[in-house]
Amino acid sequence: MSDLKDNPKKKSNLNILGFTKEVKRVELGLCPACKDPIRTEDFKDPLSFKEYNISGLCQKCQDSIFE
């Protein structure tokens, strides 16, 4: 799961910056961009899973943003 759940400082900073809805989505196990449930089996490779731990984005949104 995204390290946001385990990182209160990161969570606080994102809330201060106005990403409250996105933080809540990640806490609920949803992608902060498309709101779909996160399914770890959908990640293509370790790098994609690492990106998920940073941003909380699902594989579909990562593909859309980074490709």
**What portion of residues belong to β-strands?**
under 5%
Count of runs of 4 or more consecutive helical residues: 4
As a whole number of angstroms, the C-alpha radius of gyration is 11 Å
Q: Please tally the β strands and state the result.
A: 0
Protein described:
The chain has 67 residues and is mainly α. The protein has 4 helices and no strands. The chain has helices at residues 8-16, 20-27, 46-55, 59-66. The termini are far apart.
Topology:
Blueprint: H1 8-16, H2 20-27, H3 46-55, H4 59-66
Summarize the structure.
With 67 residues, this protein is mainly alpha-helical. It is built from four helices and no strands.
Structural features:
globular; 67 residues; mainly alpha
